[in-house]
Every structure is written in structure tokens, then in C-alpha cells.
Amino acid sequence: MMPILDNIQFALPEMIILITACLALLADLFLSSRYKNISLHLIYIGLVLSVCVSLLLMGNFKTVIFGGLFISDDAGQLMKIFICLSVFLCFAYSGDYLEERHMPLGDYYTLGLFSTLGMMVLVSAHSMLTLYLGLELLSLPLYAMTAIRRTNSDAAEAAIKYFVMGAIASGMLLYGLSLLYGVTGQLDLLDISNAIASNWQAHSMLLSFSLVFILAGVGFKLAAVPFHMWAPDVYQGAPTSVTLFISSAPKIAAVGMALRVLTIALPGVVAEWQQMILVMALLSTGIGNLLAVTQTHIKRLLAYSAIAHIGYALFGILAATTAGYSAALYYILVYSLMTVAAFGLIVLLSRNGIEIEKVDDLKGLNKRSPWLAFMMLIVMFSMAGVPPTVGFFTKLFVLKALVAADMTWVAVLGLLFAVIGAYYYIRIVKVMYFDEATDPEPISLPTSATILYSVNCLSLLYMGLFPATLLNACLTAFSG
User: Fold this and answer.
1) What are phi and psi of 294, to 5 degrees?
2) Is the N end or the C end of the chain the one with fewer CB atoms within 10 Å?
3) Structure pTM?
């Protein structure tokens, strides 16, 4: 066997997703007229298989394969599991929405799966080549998905904004990586770290310059301030099923990219990148929460909420400790489930010609469907960080990592912004429970959708009551 193919089994999750995407594409082309939703069923099988394989690969020592291009470790496998779970939920929630609006189901699912493959490659990147390959494979399908509702001018406008801003960000990241290669002469992230450790003072100016461009590219994918401009417009303009997809799994991949670059390639220049992360984190939590307070459009509100949440994940990275990195990973994994649940309800309620766009469209939801209102209450409380939901522990561990790293003043500001952020989440709860419904008709969803959504929301409560399992897995991922 060729040496480059040694230990190829560690890339099985990605191989399963690639094969599934190709089979789904062919099935949609040749068999969809005879067997409805065959591509979706194939995709479900592929995602579940990928999760099972990733679970089996957990606990192995860090293994670098493909000649240093790819790494398999617990952090990567954890992110892949939650990426696949998030994508599974996105597809499950979106079926009726896409069908009712006559959007091409096969295109949506196949593009989403190729983007998922890019996310999985990105979180296991161990070379600048794999990093950029994964990023582009993640991004390009998202641009097409944003414009998938061809008759909608808002979707086309959002797609153009997303594509142009994404192209600029990719160019900046590529320029930063090329400068880093110029300084070190290495593509492997660990080799870059060793080269910087041995002789970084001679090229400190050029290295700092490359850091700015790299973090600008990463900041765009995270939608962190000041690289957040695209997020509210794209979230609002894209079809809600696409917004659901963009808001969840890609965030895990973006944080994974940041962790790979900063913890493997650039641990020797912590002081330099900490200053930039500090500014991005504080601005994201502050501006995200303050601007969300003023929003009446629910997708824009959740877009600014996402910016604030990314700020808290960056607080963990800012601490530059094992506990901080673990807290950042824990935060983004839980956030993906929270945001899937938040947008999932909007997608599920947008049926029979109704589009949930304003916060006021949720008025009186408790009278129309008490169970769905209670599920959404759990999600909003989790996003606000109210115990006993899991959102409380995500914020607690991030702020605790900051205090342990002697950044108490940053933790205090983070806590203050969390209090501000609680306002607009509680406002949504108030609208659901205390405002009169404009349409008094009871809401009935398919049983399968109700059960899946309930499991999604109740998992936030379960992980809040029993947080140890996932938290220990995140701590173990960085303890080595």
C-alpha cells in the first residue's frame, strides 16, 4: 500500500459523505420521478453512518494522514458529529417548506451535502492546502443555495452580497496564508509552528501582517464584527430553509478553522493574535446584542444574535488555554443545536402560504400550540443563558476560562452584554405567551416533525441538567 494511504480509515466519515453526495445526485437525476425523496433518504443514511463512524473513531490518539494534509483527533470527530446532526435536522425541517414553494429539493440537499463535506475537511485540516480546499468546498454551495429560489429577487440580492463578500474574504485569507508560507516556507500547520518558534523575530512584521489577513478571512466566516456586514442581509434575503442551514453547521466549521490555525500553527505568537481576537470578541458581543434589541424582523434579530454568540465563542479562544479552547468548542457545538431549533420553528410554521418574518408573527403561539410555544421557550431561555438550560453552562465555562486567564474585566463585560441580550429573547417569549394571536386557528404539524423538533429542544434541557458528558468530551479533546 502507498504510504500516503496508510491509516485511510480515519477519513471514513468524509468518504461516506462524498459517496453519499454522489449517489444522491445520481438518484435525484435518474430515480426521483419513480421514487420520491430517494435522494433525501440516501442522505439520511449517509449522515447517520458518518456520525456512527466518527463516534467509533473517538478516543484514538491524534493521527496525521495523507502526508500531513489531514488530522484525526477527538476535537475534529466531535465537530463532525455535530455538523452531521445539525445538517440532518436542517434537511428534516426543510422538506415541506421547499416542496410548498416549488424549490428544487434535490439541488438543495445535494448542495448542502457537498458543503457538509467541505466543513468536515476544514475541521480536520492539518495543512494550509486542505484548509483552503475545505473552506471553498464549504462556501461555494452556500452561495448557490442562497439563490435557489430563482423567482425571488431578495434571494438573488442576498446571494450576490454573500458571494462578493465571501470572495473578498477568501482572497484576504489566501493572501494571509501566502504571506505565512513566505515567512516559514512550510504548508503543514505543525511545521509552521516549529518554524515560527525557531526564528519568528526575524520576520515579526511580516508575520503580524499575515495574521491580520488570516483573522479577517476567519472573521468573515464567523460573521464576527467588523466582518459581519453580510450576515443580517443574507439571513433575511435567503429562503428560511437556507438561512437555517447557513446559521448552524458552518459556524462549527468556522470555529474549527480558527482553532486549527491558532492552536496548531500559531501558538508561538499568542500575544499578537490575542489582541485582534479581543477586539473582535468584544465588538461582536456588544454590537450583536445591542443591535438585536432594535430588530422587529425575526431573521435579522437571530442574525445579530448569532454575531453575539460568536463573540462568546471567541472569548474561549481569547483565553488561549486548554480550558478556553474546550469552552469555545463546547459553546459552538451547543449553539448549533440551539440555532437549528430557533430557525427550525420558523421553517415549520412557514406553511400554507404563510411566511414567518416578523417577531409579531409569533403572537399568541401559546394559545395556538402550547407545546410548540413551550419548546421555543426552552430554546430562547437556552440562548439567553437561563438555568437549567445548557446555554447557562456554555456562557459559564467561557467566562470562567477568561477569569482563570486573568481577564476578569473581559468576563465582566461579557456578563453585562449577556444581560442585555436576555431582553430580546424574553421579548419573543412575551410575544408568544402574552400577546393576542392575529390568527386564532390552532397549529398542527406532522407528527414526525413535532417529535423531531421536541427531541431537538428537549436535548437543550437534558444537556443543561446533565452537562458532564459533552463537556468532558470537549476537555479531553484538548487535554493532549
Assistant:
1) -90, -5
2) N
3) 0.92
